[in-house]
Amino acid sequence: MGDLSGNYEIRRFPAVSKGNEGYAEAETWAKAVGFGFHDSTRTPEHRERSLATYEVDGRIFTGAYQTGPVAPSSLPAEVPVATFGTFRKTLNIGFGRMLETQMVTAVTVRTSHRRRGLLRRMMTEDLQAAKDDGVAMAALTASEGSIYGRFGYGVASLERTVKVDTTGRFTLRHTATGAVEVADPKTLLDVAPAVFERVHRHTPGSLGRQEWYRHLASGSLGRDGKEDPAIKVALHYGPDATIDGYVSYKFLGWDTTPYTVEVVDLVAATDHAYLELWQYLAAIDLVERVTWNEAPVDDPLAWALADPRCIDASDSRDMLWLRILDVPRALAARHYPADGRLVLNVDDPLGLTPGIFALTVEGGQAAVERLPEGTAADLELGVSALSSIFLGGVCPVTLKAAGAISELRPGAALRARQMFAVERATHCLTHF
Ligand SMILES: CC(=O)SCCNC(=O)CCNC(=O)[C@H](O)C(C)(C)COP(=O)(O)OP(=O)(O)OC[C@H]1O[C@@H](n2cnc3c(N)ncnc32)[C@H](O)[C@@H]1OP(=O)(O)O
Contact at 8 Å (CB) between 231 and 185? Predict the structure, then answer.
């Protein structure tokens, strides 16, 4: 790769809403992101509303700008040739523990400047800066599965699309403990963040949500930048009458057969709320199917249905990719449900956190120690594989079988599976 320093300048600046200094630069950056993702519909109003939510998120925009002469009649130098967005939220790492996480999004490189190392440069610099800032974890969701492993990211959670037959076959073996009622969708502007916060606290793999979600769920700001009048909302009330779940959904119209409702957002803070919201969805008259694109792979719905074949599911797909930036800090932050000692020899393609680390858990208390080079390890693995198993959503024994983890002490992969287990299925409801 050639030296790019003479050709491009990397600039970082915060997202700002209209009326603030720097808006023109932020809007031009957002336009470049739209170009990278083949977006042809974003109007200035849509960008204005998006930027207002990005400001609330505290997003930092990184752009690569041409410093040399720009080809005549081509896009001017103030339009970035590459974009890279970040913001910080917490990641639930099991048993209610939270870890601050660098969330990476809006990664694009203009076609005419691709494969010159711009992504590598922005990623390397950003991850190093986040680590220097004391952040031990980075996360993203990937457009293609082949891009991010080389930077040390590993798949840590999965999701799938379900089509649920809600005709007479749909019967849940479940006794309702609460109630469901229909609400004005705009109610979610106030209600959604608090309900999500409860889900976030009890779901390993959950990442804090960006501001946009409550606007999406309430129909205030659809993916096309407009109000979505098709959105309907139902709330779940627990036995103490507090709202502990909601579903935001829309009917896909009489031309879609079987007649279908699509779930836009389903957030349930208790097991009862989850099943009772499904019961509600299945009870919607004149509808034969409910689809949801962000369903868990390990789904209680399947086990509560009298006929589990009501669910027609796609293959699971990668959702959350994690990248540990600081192995000792990340390992020490977790709670481990099983005692034991594991010596991990961790390789890091970016050199951020390689080394040999002993993880010792006694009486539930974890200690992490860096050991000298050459110390015999139990498991040898890349930081990508360690990031995959960190949340308990990916099995170390399977990664061993795949050759992604080398087991140097027999039984160490199984021990890792027991130690990294979490209290309930890993699932992330935050796309970013
Ligand atoms: C978190 C998110 O935002 S996901 C969205 C990612 N963005 C997109 O998919 C939008 C369309 N694609 C693009 O804009 C660009 O092609 C990008 C951002 C994926 C890559 O940008 P580039 O500047 O070309 O990448 P760069 O030159 O730094 O390449 C870095 C490495 O990744 C590899 N790579 C880059 N893109 C891909 C790809 N799509 N598939 C496989 N490998 C890739 C390169 O071969 C290179 O490998 P090496 O350094 O090991 O030799």
Answer: yes
CA nearest 149: which of 318, 344, 361, 362? 318
Q: Are strands 355-362 and 340-347 parallel, antiparallel or unpaired?
A: antiparallel
CATH superfamily of 327-419: SCP2 sterol-binding domain (3.30.1050.10)
SS3 category, 165 = strand
Is the CB of 117 within 6 Å of ligand 1? yes
For ligand 1, is residue 147 a contact (CB within 6 Å)?
yes
Query: Which residues of the chain does CATH 3.40.630.30 include?
Result: 8-135, 159-318
Kindly report the CATH number that applies to the domain delimited by 159-318. Answer: 3.40.630.30
- State the number of CA atoms in the 13 A half-sphere of 152 facing the CB: 25
Q: How many CA atoms lie within 13 A of 431 on its CB side?
A: 13
Which of 148, 196, 249, 336 is an active site residue?
148
What is the Å distance from ligand 1's center to 144 Cα? 9
- pLDDT tens for 357-371 read 999 999 989 999 999
CATH class of 8-135: alpha beta
> d(Cα 399, Cα 392) in Å, to the nearest integer?
12
Which of 115, 121, 146, 350 to mutate to test ligand 1, by most ligand atoms within 8 A of the CB atom?
115
Nearest CA to ligand 1 atom 33: 147
Atom of ligand 1 nearest to the CA of 104: 1
Per residue in 320-338, pLDDT (tens digit) is: 999 999 999 999 999 999 9
Instruction: Please give the distance, rounded to the nearest whole angstrom, from the Cα atom of residue 116 to the centre of ligand 1.
Output: 10
Q: What stretch(es) of the chain map to CATH 3.30.1050.10?
A: 327-419
Closest-CA residue to 417 (of 382, 388, 376): 388
Contact 10, 122 (CB under 8 A): yes
The 8-class DSSP code of residue 207 comes to: B
Verify whether residue 148 is a known catalytic residue: yes
333 within 8 A of 339, measured Cβ to Cβ: no
The string of pLDDT tens digits covering residues 178-225 is 999 999 999 999 999 999 999 999 999 999 999 999 999 999 999 889
Across residues 84-95, what is the average pLDDT? 98
Residue nearest to atom 37 of ligand 1 (CA): 147
Q: How far is the CA of 147 from the centre of ligand 1 (A)?
A: 6
108 is in an annotated binding site: yes
107 Cα: distance to centroid of ligand 1 (angstroms): 9
Pairing mode, if any, of strands 289-295 and 154-155?
unpaired
